[in-house]
Amino acid sequence: MTPTIRPALPDPPRASRWPARAVALLLASLAGAGNAWAQQAVDAQDSTPRAGSSTASAASTINAAAAPTARTPFRIELIAPAPLDAWLLRHAELERLRTLPDLGDTELERLLLTAPADLRQLLASQGYFSPRITIERTGSIDAKDAKNSTGATAAPALVRIEVEPGPLAQVADWQILLSGPVLDDPAAAEQRAALQEGWKLTEGRVFTQQDWDDAKQAALRALSRLRYPEARITHSLADIDPDRHQAHLRLELDSGPAYRFGPLQVQGSERYQPETIQRLVRLAGVEPGLDYDERLLQAAQQRLLDSGDFESAFVRLDTSADPAAAPVQASVREAKQQKLVIGVGASTDSGARLSLEHLHRRVPGLDWRAATKLQLERDTRTLNGALDSPIDERGWRWNLAAQLQRQQDGPLVTSSQQLRAGRSQGGRQLERQLYAQYDRASTQDPALAVQDDAAASLSAHYGWTRRAFDDLYNPTRGQGLALELGAGLTLAQRQPYLRARARWQAYRPAFESSDRPSRWALRLEGGTVWSRDGDNVPATQRFLAGGEGSVRGYGLREIGVPRAQGGVDPGLLLTIASLEWQRPVWIDGRRSDWETALFVDAGAVANHSRALSPQIGIGMGLRYRSPVGPLQVDLAYGVERQALRLHMSVGFAF
Questions:
Q1: The sheet that has 232-241: what strands, in order across it?
Q2: Cα distance between residue 257 and residue 49, in whole Å
Q3: By the 8 A CB rule, do 354 and 341 touch?
Q4: Which of 66, 230, 427, 568 is buried most, with the most CB atoms less than 10 Å from its CB?
Q5: 108: how many CB neighbours lie within 10 A of its CB?
Q6: Global confidence as pTM
Q7: What digits encode the pLDDT tens for the residues 280-298?
């Protein structure tokens, strides 16, 4: 007989306690020596029982209330291994009904009769199927205000519950049985094997209701997201043997027919040509005749959204049609043709920021997209404009851009102009650029009335970026690599030069044996300019370092080649390395959206390799996982500057 199991419900967050505990965990993790204390503090208040740990813990007593009140006619004393005790008390039906103000002795007796069954269901959801439960009652609710023979108030009503959970049930055997076309389809051989290999509740694993539900849904998803979108669970059984503490699992899946992509049907297109939508969907890999793949539909939907032409987009398969050629339906809601955005912001590196941006998605007569932006910051003034053509059959588009900028770094002011023309191929995972560029830049020190000669150049560049992160907004695993190669000619002295730059960023698990996983965040960056006379290369083609995303503990673009008159010049060589340990904060036994970080950054800028002298920054930080990306607050100490600096940023970009 299969017992009825009620899955455990998650606790609501405790708003009154988490800020203080998050700060305590942050200080403990950053101190290093206090790490063990932080672990004990969390475990002591852990409210979610962990399979395999309860039976080894010493029993503890949990009191629901120190004394009964008008709102709580009796109190509960529960004895069970921690942390199972607090969890049972929180979810027990008896605890929920304890607050009834008009509860009497008769009603309490009825509750005590059903309490063991309720507790057994709760324990079964956590893998305990042979518990011993003892319930004793002392005192009376009806006599809580009465006096005894000595004149003292009668003892309040007390319900004492003692729970011995017994051994955890383990999976003895499991079966996944398939029916439908998936059984005989040679193309589905890997899919059938993946179903078996991906099953998590294997022999010897602790059985819980939540794990059983998760395993069933994972198996169904693995079958339905490729070829068989109509797959369903036809039968499932968890046969529990409480005497042997074993679970025998059986899951039956019907694949339904195999589907292939058919013609694309576009809905909602008015101003923009349906051919553009069809082109974006094809570029995502959705082609008529291919096997149904949910990931391709998701990629097509994301491409439509990333194009910027649509406020919403949905791409799905019409499963009511012929499975051999089921139509793909793309439903879109077009964005407004023009948009004006006024932005206000601030950062520790750039100070206050005000921006004004205008976007025209289809310029009349040209059908290109035009964007113009004016941005004013504490040390930088920028005006730029760009024109982008519609995407072609291979995913490329033409680009034209121009920029005027005035930038102050310490006592130096750099004025630059830039023109660019080329082509780009964009995507969430892969980006490529090929363009020609004109640069002109001059640097002056207003206090000394000293101005360098303006340097100008023509150059050709190729850029390549590959992202393989698990999440492009809040990555926790994966890596990204960006490469840029360029060749140019200075216009005054006609000196050729070569330019190269590379960036790499990765997230790797740290201390995987720990039950509280953390990760390493690694970042490397390097750049070089080869030229016989580097001073003639425009400043915008050379390198500076410092600030958030570079070397923390130093100001934005503060690291460069020192000038005799003060300040720094951009250099021909750049090296940056960063190592960061990111550790999630656990609150009430659950992983929160907060993280702590310890980091060390190092960077150097010079004109010759022998002059490279790393500038080091060390510090600690706090992270919050928001929907738009991580909110980062870092306090860094610049070793060479011997000063603390605060850095704040929102979002992730690579």
A1: 170-179, 246-254, 232-241
A2: 42
A3: no
A4: 568
A5: 22
A6: 0.69
A7: 999 999 999 999 999 999 9
How many angstroms separate the first and last alpha carbons of the chain? 55
Residue 117 contacts residue 124 (beta carbons within 8 Å): no
Question: What is the maximum span of the chain, computed from C-alpha positions, in angstroms?
Answer: 112
Q: Which long-range contacts (CB under 8 A, 24 or more apart) does 306-310 make?
A: 306/426, 306/427, 306/428, 307/276, 307/280, 307/391, 308/335, 308/361, 308/369, 309/272, 309/276, 309/334, 309/335, 309/361, 310/334, 310/335
Poorest-confidence range of 10-14, 100-104, 280-284, 460-464? 10-14
**Contact yes or no for 406/397 (Cβ under 8 A):** no
How far is C-alpha 366 from the geometric centre of its chain's CA atoms?
39
Strand ranges for 446-477 from DSSP E: 450-451, 455-469
Confidence class of residue 400 from pLDDT cuts 50, 70 and 90?
very high
Residues 622-639: tens digit of each pLDDT: 999 988 889 999 999 999
C-beta pairs of 641-644 under 8 Å, 24+ apart in sequence: 641/553, 641/554, 643/553, 644/553
Calculate mean pLDDT across residues 573-598: 93
User: To which residue do tokens 């009796």 refer?
Assistant: 74
Q: Is the dihedral of CA 213, 216, 221, 224 positive or negative?
A: negative
Is residue 59 very low, low, confident or very high in pLDDT (cuts 50, 70, 90)? low
- CA dist 51 and 127 (Å) reads 8
Give a three-class secondary structure readout of 513-577: CCCCCEEEEEEEEEEEEEECCHHHCCHHHCECECCCCCCCCCCCCCECEECCCCCEECECEEEEE
Share of the chain above pLDDT 70, in %: 86
Q: Which residues contact 344 (CB under 8 A, 6 or more apart)?
A: 352, 353, 354, 355
Whole-angstrom CA distances from 276 to 270, 366, 371, 389 are 12, 16, 20, 12
**Residue 600 near residue 579, CB atoms below 8 Å:** yes
Alpha-carbon distance of 82 to 55, in angstroms, equals 9
Residue 71 has what pLDDT? 54
Residues 6+ apart with CB under 8 A from 651: 473, 628, 629, 630
Does the pLDDT value for residue 228 go beyond 90? Answer: yes
Residue with token string 């039968």: 235
Other CB atoms within 10 Å distance of the CB of residue 407? 21
Which DSSP state fits 128?
Answer: B
As a whole number of angstroms, the distance between CA 111 and CA 113 comes to: 5
Residue 515 has pLDDT above 70, yes or no: yes
- How many C-beta atoms lie closer than 10 Å to residue 363's C-beta? 12
153 with 143: CB under 8 angstroms?
no
Burial 7-35 (b: 16+ CB within 10 A, else e): bbeeeeeeeeebeebbebbbebbbeeeee
| Amino acid identity for residue 605 in this structure | V
Label the pairing between strands 326-334 and 261-267.
parallel
Question: Which stretch, 69-83, 148-162, 208-222, has highest mean pLDDT?
Answer: 208-222
CA 336, CA 328: separation in Å to the nearest integer?
A: 25
Burial class (CB in 10 A: 0-12, 13-18, 19+), 172: middle
Token pair of 64, please?
């629901």
**Of residues 458, 407, 398, the one with CA closest to residue 434:** 398
Half-sphere exposure (Cβ direction) of 6: Cα atoms closer than 13 Å: 13
| Average pLDDT over every residue of 407-435 | 91
Q: Which run of H or E residues covers position 10?
A: none
Residue that has been written with the tokens 């043709």 in this structure? 337
Closest-CA residue to 455 (of 490, 494, 413): 490
The reported pLDDT for the residue numbered 1 is 34
